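FIELD: query
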Amino acid sequence: MTHEQILDLGRRWADAERHADVAALDALLAADFVGVGPRGFVLNRQQWLDRYRSGDLKNDAFSWQDVSVRDYGEAAVAVGIQDQRTSFQGHDASGRFRATLIVVRQAGRWLIAGWQASGPIPDAPPSRG
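FIELD: result
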């Protein structure tokens, strides 16, 4: 059950990212969310949401695929490939990235507490589960 819940959370997250849906992201991110990007930038929850509010980040395509999940009870780790056609402040930020979502169960709901990406990776092989 947890595995499917985490996969569903990842699908909803990718859909919200693809559509720049700040309200949906707001509901999916833990209060202490931290995102660490492939170039070492660190964003807190507010900064993550503000990328869309400001219009600086635009996605033409965004997917989360080839995901493996490890369940630790009240926490889980999902590793997959984030594939995006994206621009940030008018500059191309497209690519395929190996990404990790750290998720926690709070008040009976799964929330994303962390995101970390590495890459871009030119041709990512499938993960080994």
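FIELD: remark
The helical segments are 2-18, 22-28, 45-53.
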